[in-house]
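Lab notebook: predicted structure, single chain.

Context: the supervisor wants predicted structures on file for every construct in the current expression panel, including those that have not yet been purified. This is the next one on the list. No modifications to the sequence; it matches the entry in the shared construct table.
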Amino acid sequence: MLYPVAPGNDRTDVILVGAGIIGLSLALELYARGHRLTVLESRQPMHGASSAAAGMLAADDPHNPAALQALSQYSLSLYPSFLAGLASAAGVAVPFQTESTVQYRSFGSPQRLAERSIDPRQLADALLRAVELSSIRMVRGDFVCSEETTTDICAHLAGGSHLCGTALVHAGGAYATKLPAVPGPAVSLAPRKGQMLRVRTPAGAALTEVHRSEHVYIVPRRFGPQAGTTLIGATVEDVGFDASVQPEALIHLRALAAELVPALGSERDAPQVEAWAGFRPYTPDTLPLLGRVGRSRDFLAAGHFRNGILLAPATANVMADLIEAKQPAIDLAPFAVTRLRTT
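Prediction complete. Output recorded below exactly as produced.
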């Protein structure tokens, strides 16, 4: 539940702008380290790219940039403890849906990768429950700008209220592009729309692993509320925040999926259950933005593009280290905010 902020100086340790997978994972990491947290969100928590994603932990996707490999592998190493911690804090287990991926290459035979997937909606439920059971406060409001003093940084909200703390983290995913006054040099961050559909898994198809090519991915759901269905995605569109779903895009995705798993081509055998669109936070080099923004108390954790679910545990850990002035386990130079200056 989101609570309004009373006018005046409301004090906390760390202010997090954005209640998606990155923001809430970081909030729980900082909470475990003893910090007081306030999460600021103007929309529904965990209802952006976090819940629209397919949930592949695609650390070995050959189309990922090489510079992402170290952070990806570090995040994979943290995933078991990340999920175990959520299960303990929230009383909600998040199972792995699949244990392997068949990667179709342009040339040669398909390659099988030891790559897992999860259901992001189950992850969202666990994260929200863990936050609800903690002393982390989630408040509703529209961030306007920040102002730094000698000892604090304050987030000013629409309506005149403000929050003050020792650090402020912008973790709004694609919606970080709408922040009118993120301090420091402007950065190149934009939404990339992705349309996706979910269908009934065809009888006898025995889909137990992810199937993925350069143009489409097929992600079966085997456990939980979506069991017995399969996700087919996704488009990559530079159309701003247009959330519409076009039937022709879904038809094209199904046709691409049928090239890998023919049974998915039949609308009779694999009827559509739902379809949606989400907005990936995109940077020109498809690497996240992790670090300080201009002044010493402002931080940015955004731009995870297709890998927000995969990179959440590592991002939470390294950003918490930065906030605590510790040396992160991974070299963050490839993700420096200043690398993508637009002015």
